[in-house]
Amino acid sequence: MKRTAICLAVSALTLSPVTFAAGGMQDTPVSVSAITADQLANANVDDLKKIILALSHRVENMETQTTEIRGIATAKSKGDWAERIKWHGDFRYRFETIDNDRTDEDRNRNRIRARIGVTAQVTDDVKAGVALASGSDDPVSSNQSLGGGGSTKGINLDMAFIDWSFAENLHLVAGKTKNPFYKVGKNGLIWDGDYRPEGAHVSYDNGTFWAIAGYHFLESDNKGGDQDAEEMYGTQVGYKGAIADNMKVKVGASYFYIPVEGSASFVDGDFFGNSSVGGMHEFDYETLELFAELNTKIAGVKTTFFADYVKNSDADEDTGFALGFKLGKAKNKGDWQFGYTYEDLEADAVFAAFTDSDFGGGGTDVKGHKFNTAYAFSKNTSLSITYFDNEYGEHTRSEELDFDRLQVDIKTKFK
User: I want to staple 185 with a disulfide (CB 3.0 to 4.6 A). Which of 41, 46, 298, 306 is the partner?
Assistant: First the structure.
């Protein structure tokens, strides 16, 4: 019975060759798994000891191989997860000087902006991200002025979102997110580049057509019923495609509805150029936007032309536009770029708190020029100079006031 059991065990495994003594099995290397019942019946005690020893070694080998396989699988799993996580960030050092007729003073200051974030592809259809930024609670600026005797500087939550790809080319994104609405020519006629809307949006993009519908909050807390929550809504549709060799276009339209008539200011008690009555917003903002962008090459240099137009159907001083171009792109070492924008934005064309915080000091009721040049002295690292020659007060004051701003930036980014 014992030999039968051993025979069955031997037959189930492939073992290393074993040499048997004379008088038992053949005195040559024999695979234990190939031993027959008759051979096992004729085996002596020494032969059986060799079989048991070989079985023991085989079991140890199998355990080692299993551990190695598990280790490889675990390492592979960890490697896959590491590949799903992406870091990104940027840093900017800025010196700027401002000549503002409204305050009748010249101002010089040094500022920094630092941002860092991580995005994780949680599953094939779910992505999440978190980002931090320097600055204060200003919704359109992450700048932090240097001073205070070298005091530490504030770090705030810049983004926190979840992105669910629930169908082909369709995404549902919720949280505090990057602005989903396309900014033609990256101009700030409606949105400052640092603005991060809070709420949710659905987006569609198949590479040719895109569409976005957003539902965002100015104030989501109704204070236990003491006041209404304040929301805003936005939609945008657009087309991008080639119209000739080395010539691509983007065209589109947007509609934004921000019902704030009768509401107080949401940012520092300032209306930033919007009309107010008794400390409350005088108008809602039902703004239609039309835009176009042309990307081509001139003498081998990447060139972009753009036009942006807005009109608020619920106000008197209700229109605005921006026209501009950019030559080159300061990305790789030795690259340069030059850009120019002319903007004219009436007092109630858009919701002023979210416009470019640099142009005319931020807000509406402003017009003028913006010049920018940049040189990349290393990859993703550049020196740039931006000059604003603006005027404001045309629509709300008896006389126009000058606003001049010069910015010198060193900036770098990584991802």
Answer: 306
Give pTM, 2 decimals: 0.81
pLDDT recorded at residue 290 = 98
What pLDDT is stored for residue 54 in this prediction? 74
Task: Identify the domain containing residue 61 by its residue range.
Answer: 2-76
In a domain, 176, yes or no: yes
Q: What CATH number does residue 386 fall under?
A: 2.40.160.10
Secondary structure (H, E, C), the chain: CHHHHHHHHHHCCCCCEEECCCCCCCCCEEEHHHCCHHHHHHCCHHHHHHHHHHHHHHHHHHHHHHHHHHHHHHHHHHHHHHHCEEEEEEEEEEEEEEEECCCCEEEEEEEEEEEEEEEEECCCCEEEEEEEEECCCCCCCCCEECCCCCCCCCEEEEEEEEEEEEECCEEEEEEECCCCCCCHHHCCCCCCCCCCCEEEEEEEECCCEEEEEEEEEEECCCHHHCCCCEEEEEEEEEEEEEEECCEEEEEEEEEEEECCCCCCCCCCCCCCCCCEECCEECCCEEEEEEEEEEEEEECCEEEEEEEEEEEECCCCCCEEEEEEEEEECCCCCCCEEEEEEEEEECCCCCCHHHCCCCHHHCCCCEEEEEEEEEEEEECCEEEEEEEEEEEECCCCCCCCEEEEEEEEEEEEEEC
The answer on 242 and 103 residing in a single domain is: yes
pLDDT tens by residue, 400-415: 899 999 999 999 999 8
